[in-house]
Each structure stands twice: as C-alpha cells, then as structure tokens.
Predict the structure.
Amino acid sequence: MARRRYQKGSLLPKSGLPKNGLWVGRWREDVIQPDATIRRLYKWEVLGTIQDYPTRKLALRALEARLSTINSPTYRARPTARFAEFANQWDATVLSQHKRSTQSSTRSQLRKWLLPQLGSVALKDLDGQRLQAFVSNCKCNAKTVRNLVATLRMTWTSARAWGYVAHDPFDGLVLPKRGLVQTFAFSLEEIKRIVDSANEPHKTFYSILAETGIRGGEICALRVADLDLENAVIYVRQSVWRGQIQTVKSKKGNRRFPISTELVEHIRAYLLTWRPNTLGLVFATKNGTPWDHSLVRKRKFHPLLRKLGIPQCGFHAFRHGNATLLDQIGAPMAVRQNRLGHADAQTTMGYTHAVTADERRIAEELGKILHATARSEQKNSPAPRVLSFSIQ
C-alpha cells in the first residue's frame, strides 16, 4: 500500500527550544503485522541534540530528511520482526543453503552471542549506535568479534532484500584491531625430519602436505582419481569436514597443479600397498570413511612433533612453510596463488595468469629440495624455527 498523503510530521517541543536538549520527531508509518494486515502507527525518534541543531528550523530540516523515504512515491509498508524472529526464518531459508561447516559455525555464533544480545531488538531499531555498543561490550577476542559482525552482515543482506530494513547500521562501524598474530611455518629441515620420521601412510600424507601446501580438509578428501601420475598433476575437487565430504573452501580452491617427479614416485610406491575403499580415497579409515584431519593432528602428528622436539602446531605450518619455500625459489605470484588456492580479490593476482612452464619448473625445484637425501653435517642439528608475524 502506497502512502496516503505527504507527511510533514511534528517536532517536539511544539514551540521554542527543548528543555531536555533533545529534538524529537513524530510521524505515522505503515507497518505490516505478523498476520499480514497493515496498520498505520505513530513513530517517534530522537533526531539529535540542541548542539546538533541549534535552531528549530534546522531540526525541522532533519525531520524532513528522515521522512523522505516515507514520502517517496515508491514507499511501501515494511514487515516488522525482532532479530530473533528474523534469524530463525533466515536460518531455515538461507543458512540451510550453505555448506555444513558454515552452518555449524554460524549457528554457534547466533546461539552464543548474537541472539542473547540482539534477539529482542527490532530490526528497524538496530542502528549503528546500538551495533557499536554490541561490538564494544562483546567479551571475546577481536577475531571472534569480526566473525560475529560478518555473520550479522549476512543476515542484514537478506533483511534488506526482503524489505525489512532500508538503513545500513554498518556504516562507520569501528571494529577492534587484531594484535600481533603468531604464525608457525616449518623450516626445510623440520619438514625433512617430520617426513623421514613418519611411518606410512602418514609419511605420504606429510609429503603431500609439504610439497603442495594443500589444506588439511582437502588432502583428506583426495581421491586416487584426483592423482594424474602420468602427467604429474594433482586435482583438488572436494574437502572433508567432520568426516563428511563437501565442496572446497572457495571457487579458487577448486584447482590443479603439477607435482615433482620425486613425489610422483613416492605416491606410486604408496599406492602399491593402498587398500581400496568405496569412495576411492587416498587416505581412508578401516571403515572406508575419510580421515578427520583434526584427529590425525591430535593422535599422530602432535606426538611426532613432541618426539622430534618441534613446537606443537597444526598442519597449516606445512602450508606456511610451503609458501616460504615458494618465495625462496622465486615462484611467480600467480603460481603461488594457484597452488595455495587463495581467492583474495584485493591482490594483483586477479590480473596475472600462471604459466605452465613456470608451474612445472616450480614443482621440480620443490621436489629437489624436499626429497633430497644428501645432507651436510651442518644440517644434523635442528635448524632455527621459521616464525613469522603478521598484523591482521
């Protein structure tokens, strides 16, 4: 239903300057009720203080600007809902279309943080000031706060598309800065010690991680059909989350890249003892289900690190170590992005393309330094850790 008439609204106080220092605007607004009926209700809002608008005429201008949306010929009544009500609807219709891993983390954020703090707030009342107060009072680390705001942005996109709101509470929002982030990256010596000390099938598992920089969930979903050993190429087409096969992290994650001759021969030897399974996975449990990289990390990888005297960390240290080696051997940035499966549109990688010759050269050079058997006497002692810091 379109507007019935042009509104000028009313300003409180009706004359003179406000004694409490606040200018208050009032008007009528069409609202869609839960039973789908439309009611025209009185609305009021604090427009600003007397310091913001020293005169009545300036306050009236602010009120006119506030009513511009309602007085627009295209104005239509908006549905009303509290954040908790809308979140339930959004969960059932939008979140359910995302990957299982996204659904799990997002529902946890809603249940633990967002609904207790914002559930009773009407969407129309969730403005920048209220959102900034939520961010400032949130008792969690900076990364978690940023993740919560990202989830709110997802819900808000749907709220705007469905006509619940028209304003943007994120405009001008100040988020906490992340401090110094400690990132582990295995040195070349540490990678060799880990691979040499591991038993099969974990030796092959760590070898692939070291040379390719593949993610933990991706290597657990790797199938024999994804290994083109004749052409020395690995295809990454799927991932594993909590034992369930799902898509890769991003479109860029669906990729292919060459591997070295040394790694090809290592994999060929491993496949001679490989036990076939229903899903055709390179690494599978006795029941034929995918490995859970979190369990592999806790039960096999961490004990090995303790035995070798290497600080405890996750499989991402292979990934960071791989990126460091790629940088050391001068790999083109496009090759690095393709191998690691990064999808950052903010980088210059969107304007470059990997060259096949470069990819092959990089794969062979990685194989030579990772699989070399000859070691000098100086390498008998553990090499210094590669420890990088970044501010995110």
Summary: The longest strand covers residues 38-49. The CA atoms of residues 54 and 261 lie 77 Å apart. The first helix runs from residue 56 to 66. Residues 83-178 form a domain with the DNA polymerase; domain 1 fold (CATH 1.10.150.130).
